[in-house]
Specification:
Helix content: 25-40%
Keywords: Cytoplasm, Nucleus, Proteasome
Organism: Papaver somniferum
Subcellular location: Cytoplasm; Nucleus
Strand content: 25-35%
Distance between the termini: 72 Å
InterPro entries: Ntn_hydrolases_N, Proteasome_bsu_CS, Proteasome_sua/b, Proteasome_suB-type
CATH topology: Glutamine Phosphoribosylpyrophosphate, subunit 1, domain 1
Oligomer: single chain
Shape: globular
Main location: cytoplasm
CATH class: Alpha Beta
CATH architecture: 4-Layer Sandwich
Number of domains: 1
Length: 212
């Protein structure tokens, strides 16, 4: 008779896919609405987007309990910043804060795969992509989550972001118009849905741009 071995398994994988594209004066960020575990669908109407500041939205795939804990931690720190300084955190500053928060938990990390999108201090679109322990990079576009390996080759083919190693540095923004970026996001989700059971074509999409 085999003995049942007890194991500590604190994580689950709830799937989900997130995409963000930065333009010259806009940022498009989207995430699908399905939350799954194994071969079961827990809900088809779950938002993976979180507004952290007026010009900053985070989308997260992975273990949604950890994602919620991460969102609450960032929202609390942003509220404290607002009380102390009387203004919103900028998107680049929030990008650094998210990196620090993830790195702080590196020995028992949040099982969350995040992409942060928004507008920088000059009004340009910016996208920050992360691993689970806080390593991050500013890019022109990114995908995270269970369908990211299907979506990133399409984005690479369509957008061809310049290498971050180029000198002088080149702005990491895409040449597409806002309408073209929205159409591309819809297309890549439709494509990923055909191959990834954790991604659904139904998705929430947010557009950030300068008023007027």
């Amino acid at each position: 008779m085999a003995h049942k071995q007890q194991r500590f398994e604190p994580y689950d994988m709830n799937g989900g896919t997130c995409v963000a594209i930065a333009g010259a004066d806009y940022c498009v960020i989207a995430a699908d609405t399905r939350m799954s575990t194994g071969y079961s669908i827990l809900t088809r109407d779950y938002s993976k987007l979180c507004k952290l500041a007026d010009k900053c939205i985070m989308a997260s795939g992975g273990f949604q309990a950890d994602v919620k804990a991460l969102q609450k931690a960032l929202s609390a720190k942003h509220l404290i910043y607002q009380h102390q300084h009387g203004k919103q955190v900028s998107c680049p500053a929030m990008g650094q804060l998210l990196s620090n928060t993830l790195y702080y938990k590196r020995f028992f990390p949040y099982y969350a795969f995040n992409v942060l999108g928004g507008l920088d201090n000059e009004g340009k679109g910016c996208v920050y992509t992360y691993d689970a322990v806080g390593s991050y990079e500013r890019v022109g576009y990114s995908a995270q989550g269970s369908g990211s390996t299907l979506i990133m080759p399409v984005l690479d083919n369509q957008l061809k972001s310049p290498s971050p190693l180029l000198l002088p540095a080149v702005d990491a923004v895409t040449p597409l118009s806002e309408a073209e970026a929205i159409d591309l996001v819809k297309d890549v989700f439709a494509s990923a849905t055909e191959r990834d059971i954790y991604t659904v074509s139904s998705h929430l999409l947010c557009i950030l741009h300068i008023p007027g």
